[in-house]
Design a protein that fits this description.
The structure holds 3 protein chains of 3 kinds. By secondary structure, chain A is an alpha+beta fold. Chain A contains 9 helices and 18 strands. In chain A, helix 2 crosses helix 3 and helix 2 runs parallel beside helix 4. Chain B has 12 helices and 12 strands. Classes of the chains: A alpha+beta, B alpha/beta, C mainly alpha.
C-alpha cells in the first residue's frame, strides 16, 4: 500500500520543472520532500494531486500486497482520494470553521449526525474544540492552518499532501505546530507527503525524506539514513550541515574521528567540541573568532590541513580568558558528521 | 449595534430576490412574449382562408385606422402584417439593399423624391391595378413605364406661417422663398432636415428648382438668418412652431398644404400655407420583387386605392387622396388650399444628383 | 500520446466548448451582419478599392466630423470626471441618510433611452422651457451636457468602488509625517485613484465618442459625429463605401482605446479589494464635494423632473390624461400612431428584457469563465485576451450598421432569421454583453485558483467546486449584472428600432413613434411613457443598489 511515482516529468510552457522524479511512500508513513524554493517540489506535489498534467511518467497507488498498482496519472483531482493542504490553508471564507471541516463530509453525503461527530472530533484533534462557529477571517494564521488540516483529514484521504504547511507561520509557532503535526499524523495514521524548504520541519514531522534540486530527486530514504549519508555536498549543506570539507581538507578531520579516508566530509556546527585545556586528543587549531549564544559558545577555528571549521565549547563552558589567536584542541564527534 | 445591521444586510438580497421572482412571474419569463394569438392583431381572427399573410413595408409615419386595415382581411382573406423601416429615405435604401430578398411583399411610402432609386435597382415588380380610379393616372411616376409604382396619396410641402403671431406684431408674414432670408424674418423659421426627413428633402428640391446651381448660397443665407433645422418634421412643427401644440416660438415652419386644417379655432385657421413655396410629394405603393405573396401584394395595392383607404388618408396621414372626388373632412375642404403650380424637379435629374445634393446640403448646414 | 498532451487537449476542448455558444451568437448576430455591410461598402462591385476608401477619409467633411467627435467626447469626458470625482467621494466615503437612493438615481441616466433623454433636454432647454435663458438649445454645449448626463454615473461607480476600498493607512501615515490635507490628497490619494480614474475616463470617452441618440436628438442635424455620420451615410445617402470606411476607422479607434484601457486595467482592479472602508459622517471639510454632488444630482434630476412635469400637463392644466391614454386601445381612438396600447408595449419591453437578460447573463458568464480560466501558455493567454476583446466590439459598432446588416445577411436561406422574434432580445443581449462581462470578469479573476484546487483535492467535482468557491462571491455581481442587462435592454433603442415588429414594439420604439406623429395627446403619451420607463429603470437600479454590487465593473 502506498504512493508510487515513476519517472515523472512536468513542465510549464516548455520549461521543465520536474524531471524524471520517482517516489515511494509506503502506507502510513510521512515523506518530506525537501528542497530550496524553485526546485520543483511544489510542482511535484501538485502533479501528484492532479493539478498539473505530467509530460511523462506515472502516478500510481499501490493497493496492497499482490493487488497491483492503480494508475492515477489521468484521474482528475477530485477522484484521486488525496487531500491537498495549501501553504495558506485556502479555507472557504464564507463558511464557518465547522462547515469548512464538514465540507468533504457533505461531499460524501455523510449523515448530519456523523458529520457533527466527526467535525467535533477533528477540531478537538487539531486543538480547536469550540471553534466550529467562528469565521475563518477571525482566526490567526496558525489556527487557520489547523482548520485546513482538520478539513483535509475530514476527507479521509488515502494520501495527505501538505504544501509548506508551516512556512507561513512565525518561528516559535512553527516549531510547536511541527510537533503537533507529527502527533496528529501519527494519531490519524494517514500516509502523507509534505513539501518544505525547512530541514528542521522535515526532520520533526517526517520519517522519510526526499531531497530535490533543480527538478530532480537527488536522494531519498529514511530520514536518519539520508541525514547520515547525504548524497553530495550541496545536499549536506541543505540538510543543515554547517560546512563540507572536500579532498585533502577532509582527511585530518576523518582521521581524528577514526574514520577511513573519503572524498568529503560534512560537519554539523557541533561536530567539533573544544577539549579541556591541556588535552592532547583530537585536532589542533587556532581561534579565528568566537561568540557566546545563550546555549553555547561558537568558535571558528583554523585547523592546519583542513582550513576554517566550526566548533563549540563543551558542556563545561568556554575556558576563561579565551582569546582570538589562542591555540586550542578539539575532539571530533563522529555522530555529528557525515561522510559524503 | 451589530445586530440590526446584520439583519438588514440579510434582508436586502432577500427583498431583491423576491422582486426578481415577481418580475419573472409577471412577464411569464417567456421567450419573446408567447402571445402568438395576438401576433397578427389586424386580422382579428378572420382567418386568411385565401392564403396567408401579406407583409406591408412602410415608413414610420404610416398610419391607418385599425378598422380600415381589418377591412382588407375581411375583403380578401389575407392577414396583414406591418413593418415600418424608418423614414422614407431609410426605408427606400433598405429596400434597395435587400432587393431580391425583400423584408415584405408590398412597400408603401416610396415617394417621388426617392422613387427613381428604387426603379433603378429593380426593387419592384409590375402591379399597377388594371382599372385605375379617376385621378390616379395624373400622379403616375414619370419614367415608370412598366407600372411598378401605384400612386396612393399626394400632398404639397409648403412653408406655413402663424398668421395670428404676425398679426399680433403688426408684421407682414413672409410670402416667398426669398423672404425667408430677409433679416426682418431672422430666427423665425423651423424646418426638417433634407437628409433625414422626406418633407425636408422636398423643400430642398423646391429651392433647387427656384435657385438652380445657386441653391447652396441660398441655404447659407437661410442658416445665417437663423433657420433652425430639426431631424424630423414633427420636431419642427410640433416642438418649434408656435401653433404646433408645444411651446414653440417659431412662427414660420416647413410643413404641408394640409396643415392649416389642423389649426382651426372658432371657424378660422390660425395658420396658412404659402402656396408659392410648395413642392409636390406623391407616395407610391408597389409589390416587391421576390415577394413571398405577390398575389396578396397585388390585392393590397388595389385595396390602397379603395374608398375606405382613400377616405381615411387625410385624418390619418395628413395627405390628400389621389382618387378624384374622395370626400375630404370638412375643415380640409375649407382651409387646406392647394397650390396650382408647385415646384418640381425632373425625376431623372433627381436620380442623378440626389446623393450629391444631400451631401452638399449636409455640408452647408452642419458645422 | 502523453498525459500532458491529452490534458492540454482536454483543456482546449473545454475552453472551446465554453466559448462555442457565445462565439456562435456573436458570429451570427454581430460579426456576420457587420462584415456583410462593411464588405458591401469596401467591395461595391466585388473588387476592393482602397483608393475610394482613402478618398472618403480625405474628404474635408470627414475631417470635420472626426474633429467634432473628438472634442465633444474629450470635453464630455473631462466634465464627467471633474463632476464625478467629488460625487464618488461623497457617495462612497461618506455616510448620510438616503445615500442608496442618490446612488441609484445617479445611475438612471446611464440606462435611459436616448430618445427619452433627448425629449427631456428639449423640454428644459427649448425656448419657453425653464432653462431657455441659457440659450443652449441645439448647441454643442447641450450635446456635451447630454453626454455628461449619461456618463457621470460611470465615473461615480468605478472610481467610487476603488475609493471605497482604498486603504486609509497610507493617508494617515502621510498625515503623521506632517502632510496637510491637500498634500495628502495630491501625494497619496490621487496616485492611488489614478488607475481607476484613467480607466473610467477611457470608457466614458468610448461611450461619448460612439454616442448616437444624444448627438442626434439634442444636437439636431446641424452637428455630425462619426456615429451620426455613419447613420446618415448608410440610411439616408446609401453611400455604403463612405460608411464602411468610417466604420472601420471607428472600429480601429475603439479597439485601440480598449487595448489602452485593458493595459491600464491591469494596474488596479477596484473590485479585487475586499476591504471596504467604513464611511463616515460628512465634516466641515467635505463642503466642496458635497455641494458639487448636490449640483450633479440637481443636474441629473432636472431633465427627469421636466419630463415628469411635462407628462402631467395637458392643455396647461394638471392632468393624468396622458397616463390614462397609455392603456387605451389606439385603434379607434384619436391617436393612431400605434398598433397596440402602450401598456402592451411595456409588457413586451419587460418580456424582451427578461429574455435579453438571461441571454446576456448566460453568454457573459461563459465569456467571463473562458477569459478568466488560468492560461498554461503564453499563446493560450493571448487567445483568451483576444476573446475578451472580441466581445467588447459591440460597443464600437453603430446600430445602423448592425440593423442594415441583419437585413442584408439574415434575409435569405439558410439564415432566414430576420423575422425571428428572438432577434430583438438577442441583439439587446449583445449590446448589454460588454457590461455583463466587465462586471463578472474582475470577480471571477479575483477568486484564488488554489481555492478551487483545494475543493477539488477534498473530492469536489468541478461543479461542486464552483458551488463552494465561485458562487458565493459571484452571485451578487451576477444579480447586479442581470439588473444592468435588464435596464439596458429596457432602454435599448438603436438596434431595437430596426428589428422590433410593429405589433410587438418596445417602449422606446413606441415613444419614438409617438414623437413622430402629430398631436398633443401623442406628445403627452410619449412623455408619460418616458416617465414610466424611467421609473421602471430606476426601480431596477435601486434593487441593484441594494445588493451593493461594485457595479459597472472594471474596464
Amino acid at each position: 500500500m502506498g504512493l508510487s511515482v515513476r519517472d515523472l516529468s512536468v513542465s510549464y510552457d516548455g520549461v521543465p520543472a520536474v524531471r524524471g522524479a520517482s517516489l515511494e511512500v509506503p502506507g502510513g508513513s510521512t515523506l518530506a520532500v525537501l528542497g530550496p524554493s524553485g526546485c520543483g517540489k511544489s510542482t511535484l506535489l501538485r502533479a501528484v494531486a492532479g493539478l498539473e498534467p505530467p509530460d511523462a511518467g506515472t502516478i500510481g497507488w499501490v493497493a496492497g500486497e499482490g493487488r497491483g498498482v492503480e494508475d492515477l496519472t489521468r484521474v482528475p483531482t477530485h477522484r484521486r482520494g488525496f487531500a491537498l493542504m495549501f501553504q495558506d490553508g485556502q479555507l472557504f471564507p464564507q463558511m464557518t470553521v465547522g462547515r469548512n471541516v464538514a465540507y468533504p463530509l457533505r461531499l460524501r453525503r455523510a449523515p448530519s449526525a456523523e458529520r457533527r461527530r466527526r467535525t467535533t472530533e477533528l477540531l478537538a484533534l487539531v486543538g480547536l474544540g469550540g471553534y466550529a462557529d467562528r469565521l475563518p477571517t477571525t482566526l490567526s494564521g496558525g489556527e487557520r492552518q489547523r482548520v485546513a488540516l482538520a478539513r483535509s483529514l475530514a476527507a479521509d484521504p488515502r494520501l495527505l499532501l501538505l504544501d509548506e504547511p508551516l512556512s507561513a507561520l512565525d518561528a516559535g509557532l512553527r516549531e510547536r505546530l511541527a510537533t503537533d503535526l507529527r502527533d496528529i499524523l501519527r494519531a490519524a495514521g494517514t500516509t502523507t507527503v509534505l513539501v518544505t524548504h525547512d530541514h528542521e520541519e522535515a526532520y520533526a514531522v517526517a520519517d522519510r525524506l526526499a531531497v530535490m534540486r533543480d527538478g530532480v530527486v537527488v536522494q531519498q530514504g529514511a530520514t536518519a539514513e539520508v541525514w547520515r549519508h547525504p548524497h553530495d555536498a550541496a545536499t549536506a549543506l541543505f540538510l543543515g550541515y554547517a560546512r563540507v570539507l572536500e579532498g585533502d581538507a577532509a582527511t585530518p578531520v576523518l582521521a581524528a574521528a577514526g574514520l577511513g579516508p573519503s572524498s568529503a566530509v560534512a560537519l554539523r556546527r557541533s561536530a567539533l567540541v573544544l577539549a579541556d585545556r591541556g588535552s592532547t586528543a583530537g585536532l589542533r587549531g587556532r581561534v579565528v573568532s568566537w561568540r557566546a549564544t545563550p546555549d553555547q559558545v561558537r568558535l571558528v577555528l583554523d585547523v592546519p590541513g583542513a582550513g576554517e571549521v566550526d566548533a563549540v565549547a563543551g558542556a563545561s563552558g568556554p575556558p576563561a580568558g579565551l582569546a582570538v589567536g589562542d591555540e586550542v584542541r578539539v575532539t571530533v564527534d563522529a555522530d555529528r558528521l557525515a561522510v559524503v | 449595534m451589530m445586530l440590526p445591521a446584520r439583519t438588514r444586510g440579510a434582508a436586502r438580497p432577500l427583498l431583491a430576490g423576491v422582486g426578481a421572482a415577481v418580475l419573472l412571474l409577471t412577464t411569464s419569463c417567456s421567450l419573446a412574449g408567447g402571445d402568438d394569438d395576438e401576433a397578427t392583431s389586424s386580422s382579428d381572427g378572420a382567418a386568411g382562408q385565401a392564403g396567408g399573410t401579406v407583409t406591408l413595408v412602410t415608413h414610420d409615419s404610416f398610419v391607418l385606422p385599425k378598422k380600415v386595415l381589418r377591412g382588407f382581411t375581411e375583403e380578401t382573406g389575407y392577414d396583414l402584417e406591418q413593418r415600418p423601416l424608418g423614414d422614407a429615405g431609410a426605408m427606400t435604401n433598405q429596400l434597395v439593399l435587400a432587393a431580391g430578398t425583400p423584408p415584405g411583399d408590398v412597400a408603401f411610402g416610396v415617394d417621388n423624391t426617392f422613387a427613381s432609386r428604387a426603379l433603378e435597382e429593380d426593387v419592384f415588380v409590375p402591379a399597377l391595378p388594371d382599372d385605375l380610379p379617376a385621378g390616379v393616372e395624373d400622379d403616375l411616376m414619370p419614367g415608370d413605364d412598366e407600372g411598378l409604382l401605384t400612386p396612393v396619396d399626394d400632398g404639397n410641402v409648403c412653408v406655413n406661417v402663424d398668421d395670428t403671431w404676425f398679426a399680433e406684431r403688426d408684421l407682414e408674414p413672409p410670402a416667398s422663398l426669398d423672404d425667408l432670408v430677409d433679416p426682418a424674418y431672422a430666427d423665425l423659421l423651423a424646418l426638417p432636415a433634407a437628409t433625414t426627413s422626406s418633407p425636408g428633402l422636398a423643400f430642398l428640391l423646391a429651392t433647387i428648382d427656384e435657385y438652380g446651381d445657386d441653391w447652396p448660397t441660398y441655404w447659407e443665407a437661410l442658416v445665417d438668418n437663423g433657420a433652425e433645422i430639426t431631424s424630423g418634421w414633427e420636431q419642427a412643427y410640433q416642438s418649434r412652431f408656435t401653433q404646433g401644440g408645444g411651446d414653440g416660438d417659431r412662427p414660420v415652419v416647413v410643413s404641408y398644404d394640409s396643415s392649416p386644417a389642423f389649426t382651426v379655432d372658432g371657424g378660422e385657421s390660425a395658420t396658412s400655407a404659402l402656396l408659392d413655396t410648395c413642392y409636390q410629394q406623391v407616395e407610391y405603393a408597389g409589390v416587391l420583387a421576390g415577394a413571398e405573396n405577390p398575389e396578396g401584394g397585388a390585392a393590397l395595392v388595389e385595396y390602397l386605392l379603395s374608398p375606405e383607404v382613400q377616405e381615411a388618408l387625410p385624418e390619418s396621414m395628413y395627405v390628400f387622396p389621389v382618387v378624384e372626388d374622395t370626400p375630404l373632412p370638412a375643415d380640409w375642404a375649407r382651409f387646406a388650399d392647394r397650390p396650382t403650380d408647385p415646384y418640381a424637379v425632373d425625376p431623372a435629374e433627381i436620380a442623378a444628383n440626389r446623393d450629391t445634393w444631400l451631401r452638399e446640403w449636409a455640408d452647408v448646414t452642419s458645422r | 500520446m502523453t498525459a500532458a498532451t491529452s490534458t492540454t487537449t482536454r483543456r482546449l476542448a473545454t475552453t472551446a466548448a465554453l466559448a462555442a455558444l457565445p462565439l456562435a451568437v456573436l458570429g451570427l448576430f454581430f460579426l456576420l451582419p457587420v462584415a456583410g455591410m462593411v464588405d458591401r461598402g469596401l467591395r461595391p462591385d466585388g473588387v476592393l478599392d482602397p483608393g475610394a476608401v482613402l478618398e472618403v477619409l480625405t474628404r474635408p467633411r470627414t475631417g470635420r466630423v472626426v474633429w467634432f467627435t473628438l472634442w465633444t467626447a474629450t470635453l464630455g469626458t473631462v466634465v464627467a470626471v471633474v463632476l464625478g470625482l467629488p460625487a464618488a467621494y461623497v457617495l462612497h466615503r461618506l455616510r448620510f441618510p438616503g445615500r442608496g437612493l442618490v446612488r441609484a438615481l445617479l445611475l438612471v441616466p446611464f440606462v435611459l433611452p436616448t430618445v427619452v433623454v433627448g425629449v427631456a433636454f428639449d423640454l428644459l432647454l427649448r425656448d419657453g422651457g425653464p432653462l431657455a435663458g441659457l440659450g443652449l438649445a441645439g448647441t454643442p454645449a447641450a450635446i456635451v451636457a447630454g453626454l455628461v448626463f449619461f456618463n457621470v454615473a460611470v465615473v461615480v461607480r468605478s472610481v467610487g468602488a476603488t475609493w471605497e476600498g482604498l486603504d486609509r493607512r497610507p493617508a494617515e501615515a502621510a498625515a503623521a509625517l506632517g502632510a496637510g490635507p491637500w498634500q495628502v490628497w495630491w501625494t497619496v490619494t490621487v496616485p492611488a485613484l489614478r488607475p481607476a480614474v484613467v480607466s473610467a475616463a477611457s470608457v466614458v470617452f468610448l461611450f461619448c465618442a460612439t454616442a448616437f441618440g444624444v448627438v442626434l436628438v439634442i444636437g439636431g442635424v446641424r452637428y455630425a459625429s462619426v456615429e451620426t455620420e455613419i447613420y446618415l451615410l448608410t440610411a439616408n445617402l446609401l453611400d455604403l463605401q463612405a460608411a464602411a470606411a468610417l466604420s472601420l476607422v471607428q472600429l480601429l479607434a475603439v479597439v485601440a482605446l480598449l487595448l489602452v484601457s485593458a493595459r491600464l486595467r491591469t494596474t488596479a482592479d477596484p473590485t479585487r479589494s475586499r476591504v471596504v472602508a467604513a464611511p463616515r459622517r460628512p465634516a466641515r471639510g467635505d463642503l466642496v464635494p458635497v455641494v458639487v454632488t448636490a449640483l450633479v444630482l440637481l443636474a441629473v434630476a432636472a431633465p427627469i423632473a421636466a419630463l415628469v412635469v411635462g407628462s402631467l400637463r395637458v392643455d396647461g392644466a394638471w392632468s393624468l390624461a396622458s397616463y390614462r391614454a397609455l392603456g387605451a386601445d389606439p385603434g379607434d381612438a384619436g391617436g393612431q400612431a400605434l398598433l397596440v396600447p402602450v401598456t402592451d408595449a411595456l409588457l413586451n419591453s419587460l418580456r424582451t428584457a427578461v429574455d435579453a437578460t438571461w441571454m446576456s447573463v448566460l453568454l457573459g458568464l461563459l465569456v467571463a469563465a473562458v477569459v478568466t480560466r488560468r492560461s498554461r501558455s503564453r499563446a493560450e493567454r493571448r487567445v483568451r485576451s483576444l476573446l475578451d476583446g472580441l466581445f467588447m466590439l459591440p460597443l464600437g459598432v453603430s446600430a445602423v450598421t448592425l440593423g442594415f446588416g441583419f437585413l442584408v445577411t439574415l434575409g435569405r436561406p439558410p439564415l432566414e432569421l430576420r423575422d425571428n422574434p428572438l432577434l430583438v432580445p438577442v441583439a439587446q443581449a449583445l449590446v448589454a454583453l460588454p457590461l455583463v462581462v466587465r462586471t463578472l470578469v474582475p470577480v471571477l479573476a479575483s477568486v484564488d485558483e488554489r481555492l478551487r484546487q483545494a475543493a477539488a483535492s477534498l473530492g469536489a467535482s468541478p461543479a461542486r467546486a464552483l458551488l463552494a468557491v465561485d458562487l458565493p462571491v459571484l452571485w451578487k455581481p451576477l444579480v447586479g449584472a442581470a439588473g444592468f442587462a435588464f435596464a439596458v435592454s429596457l432602454g435599448e433603442f438603436g438596434a431595437t428600432s430596426f428589428l422590433a415588429r410593429p405589433d410587438h414594439p418596445t417602449v422606446p420604439v413606441v415613444i419614438f413613434r409617438l414623437l413622430g406623429n402629430p398631436g398633443e395627446l401623442n406628445y403627452g403619451m410619449a412623455l408619460a411613457a418616458s416617465v414610466v420607463l424611467a421609473a421602471t429603470t430606476a426601480g431596477v437600479m435601486l434593487a441593484v443598489e441594494r445588493l451593493r454590487v461594485p457595479s459597472l465593473g472594471a474596464w
